[in-house]
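In this supplementary section we document a worked example of the pipeline. Step one takes a protein sequence of length 156 as its only input; no multiple sequence alignment statistics are reported here. Step two produces a three-dimensional model, which step three serialises into structure tokens for compact storage. The input and output of this example are shown verbatim.
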Amino acid sequence: MTHGAKLIRRNQKRLLKRKYKGAIFQQYSIIEYMSLIRHHHISFKNAVNGLFWAFSTQPNFRVHFFLSLTVLILGFYLKISYLEMTILVLTIAFGLGIEMVNTSIEAMTDLITRQYRQEAKIAKDVAAGMMLLTSIFAVVIACLIFIPKIINIFEF
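The serialised model returned by step three reads:
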């Protein structure tokens, strides 16, 4: 057994578990930390690849993204409050996330079957309906925030 393997085994035996208010904290060896970081790096890389794929292949995602940028720029121009901007950012993140869920449901349905099946149609229609509902409520939220600001600009 090499010296490195002996150190790993010794560190594995020395893992300390201590309780602090019901939670268990562990000490890991450097190699275990490196493994955890490597795993998270790969997950993060896959997530970024998914974002780039959605942006480059899905026209609806691009439309929603550019509308979102427009809303944020309008929010800065109209000097909306911090709370209103937070609500807009969360609504945008939710809308873009739902668009990606819709895309993934459609892709999985196409992967499962290319033939016309009523169940596949229902899955795609419900996913599209989810996106439509999210978009409608995002517009309602934007109107609730922006219409009073725009009215104040044009009042004398």
